Amino acid sequence: MRTSQNRVMDCLKPCSASYVPLSPISFLEIAASVYSDRVSIIYGDTRYSWRQTHDRCLKLASALSQLEVGSNDVVAAVAPNVPALYELHFGVPMAGAVLCALNTRLDAAMLATLLEQLQAKTIFVDYQFLEAVLQALEIVSFAKTKPLTLVLIPKSDHETSSTAERLPPGSLNYNRLLDLGRADFQIVRPEDECNPISVNYTSGSTGKPKGVVYSHRAAYLNSIAGIFRYDMSKKTVFLWTVDMFRCNGWCLTWAMAALGGTNICTRLVTAKAIFKAISLHKVTHFCGAPALLNFISEAPFEDQLQLDHKVEIIVAGALPPTQVLTKIDKLGFNISHGYGMSEALGPVTVRPWKHDAAAKVELVEGNHNLVMEEIDVKDPVTMASVPPDGKTIGEVMLRGNTMMSGYFNDLKATQKAFKGGWFRTGDLGIRHPDGGYIQLKDRACDAIVSGGEIISTIEVEAVVVGHPMVMEAAVVGKPDDLLGETPCAFVKLKERCSVSSEEIVKFCMKRLPHHMAPKTVIFGNLPVNSTGKVQKFVLREKAKAIGNLAN
Amino acid sequence: MRTSQNRVMDCLKPCSASYVPLSPISFLEIAASVYSDRVSIIYGDTRYSWRQTHDRCLKLASALSQLEVGSNDVVAAVAPNVPALYELHFGVPMAGAVLCALNTRLDAAMLATLLEQLQAKTIFVDYQFLEAVLQALEIVSFAKTKPLTLVLIPKSDHETSSTAERLPPGSLNYNRLLDLGRADFQIVRPEDECNPISVNYTSGSTGKPKGVVYSHRAAYLNSIAGIFRYDMSKKTVFLWTVDMFRCNGWCLTWAMAALGGTNICTRLVTAKAIFKAISLHKVTHFCGAPALLNFISEAPFEDQLQLDHKVEIIVAGALPPTQVLTKIDKLGFNISHGYGMSEALGPVTVRPWKHDAAAKVELVEGNHNLVMEEIDVKDPVTMASVPPDGKTIGEVMLRGNTMMSGYFNDLKATQKAFKGGWFRTGDLGIRHPDGGYIQLKDRACDAIVSGGEIISTIEVEAVVVGHPMVMEAAVVGKPDDLLGETPCAFVKLKERCSVSSEEIVKFCMKRLPHHMAPKTVIFGNLPVNSTGKVQKFVLREKAKAIGNLAN
């Protein structure tokens, strides 16, 4: 007997009319048809329409396929935010391949390690970074046994013959390569939307960089979610200040095609370039590391500009001091603060920065978080959610469709990260009673355990930077025979300022429970990685060395 | 030997941290956590927060599951746009079941046919429509052999005991049913995102209504796409003028939860109710059939209101005359015009109406069409795209992830609709050279073939309604021995107007190629279906009868 269940199911087999594997490739195809004449990219004197960008990406895909780059091959790129790197974000997946845009600040040795890991047959390299890549290729072993193609991205979009003599045989010029491509190329769409579209390396602040694999599905959904998250519209003019090699530019490479907005590419991110782009192109959004805010705030007066339209800056990472934020706010910028990581394809949540909120520690609000399924704070052993009591510390965990597929060629690390069916961020947090807001307390590996108490270094740092002479501060645990660890503050003072370590300690004692106040204060510059994150593992080593000296 | 391909694939198996079947259920869960205290629904004196709506839907799901409603069972509902019907949009899928909201204007016989087809064990009925449903249940046969539960939605949200004596044994009151539900119910999420979430019947303007099955995936993606399409934001206050039984309220039932916006429910859609809601609740959006525009334009002066904020009206169907549109535009409303159908989950494309565009025939622009993969005009036999020459007629075809899964229990109709891997809309259109815009020419079944030429009845109608005395017009083919068919115009004149059929014919002759001008003109009211669409099949019968009389 047929039940109603069978009946409903009768007609349900997805077919090509009703099911298309989700992929950001679709965004470019729709943009070419719907927004065909609108400006897609501005880069110096170069301007493309969405139709042109589509056609260039199609030819790129065709040329790659002629080079026998195909299904799931990794194509590496070492380039700044130039149109070629934007085009690779579509052209590589349209050939069925996987894009890995590498950090341009890596040295030859690290580049070699990653290229070896990726087994990238094809490497796109901007002329500025050619030397480092050539050095890296001297080191790698797979390049000697396998045919390898180097594609040089020249300074200008019209140049077809530069520095050819320095390139290994078989190398190509990017613009020449495009000429090889056929305009009638049949796009290789992913058979399964969970297939990889890209690999993004973590900055490796806690160890060696890990290759984070993104799927077409996750990239598609995160692009759409990003439009909400960053309050974007068809009128968005996006200035490329965030590196495209960071989570594929927070997936905004693809999102901009979905919107049919305009990309402003720039080789160099300086305050001058930012202000010029704002006034020339009416930029509406830019984003990146908080260092951007320092750039703008410290720009010479003649470079600064009072804004005549709304400009959104979204930053992810530790915010600079309130004075900096207030100054930028007064220039007319809207600042938002994001929380995220490479594994979650960039910022997961974003919230507007407000004057009155500056004193508070970062809140993770599920704002505009349309596609990430759940954000929770859990006991990492029992996996129970912590009570929303504003004090029980747990680990921030995420799950949802805008999550990485896993780590490149590292099943063990993937399984560890996804243990229990959630992505373990390694961040410690608490839940507040009102609406269950999450407040970050520390990185699990940074927190100090002193006399059995967990001390949030973020909270101590917030107090230290409150001292009027302090520019920046980072707090780590210093080994202590009695208490296990004690807080040790590394402090960078403002220019022409001077203060004793005793005064800093006293200042903190007044404002914090005694066990949380730093017992040691060390003055100097703070070591940062390529993202601008303070390298606490370096400071921990220093604190340990000092401890040993003292003993 | 391991290739790079294996390596990338190593870490790619989706797990519960990185893959969650897409379902609108997620929107309600996120709304309850992120927008917990914001107002979800206003209905008269009743107000709910998103937390409360979530809890009520959860209890509804729990109660349904206690009634043994489960995986893929169809739950039917016959109700106006009251909170209960909104809650059913989440509660039913959260129990794993499939919602079918039926047209409240169906008579008992048609209701019986559809209930029988659906084999719906559980029927929610609003007190206003109880009589029709009770009559329908007298007719159906499956109700006699299977246990059936009728759930009465009373007039007020607090009423728990009304008209109980008229209900069959085993019937329940909606508010009582919610009380049975457990707040700790475990949501039954779809195992596969392509599983059905709802069935929506077509209005059946061309034949008997067909049950269109929507998947969780399509509903989820169309909800998100709708936010762009209708230019919505977190601040959206949505007035329920479109029936929730039409494509699940164009999927805006679910989209409103994704936004955390506010739903204004109303039992009766009148101009007075619309203006009252706008002034009381600062409504930002409402939508539905073009009849809405006539409502507003014809509202008594004392009911009308000069708007002090932006209000978007989106209508889908044949637009009323320019005078009506201009009047509404002057009141301060923004009018947008959508093109779509039940099979595409509602409007596929939406474009703003402009004064100067009123003379043109509807353009299907891919505006905000983020998730529908492709819209094309094709030769229905060869499946080749028509050239963008502004004249070659083809059939408008669609494919993408916001398409129905198929027709309920009708594999043959599904296969016919999806033949060749595209959904065949049955609409005729052409492509324009500029950006390939699509212009609708006619329904394939409405077009007139006269002396071998295809005549677009839409184009003839546009000319006829241009006559200053004409209010509405519909043109159909009248059988003709010589030419096959000739155009026959059915015309409704404006009040206190009078004109001869000869004059209408002459008026058209001046403005159209002679073969396109109507040869016959008949005055009177036009028959419309429940959506307000003119029933051309009725007019064709009339035209045929006249033809026979004449012969």
TrEMBL record, chains A, B:
One of its GO terms (biological process) is phenylpropanoid metabolic process. Keywords: Ligase, Phenylpropanoid metabolism. Residues 29-408 form the AMP-dependent synthetase/ligase domain. One of its GO terms (molecular function) is ligase activity. SUPFAM superfamilies: Acetyl-CoA synthetase-like (SSF56801). Belongs to the ATP-dependent AMP-binding enzyme family. This is 4-coumarate--CoA ligase. It comes from Escallonia herrerae.
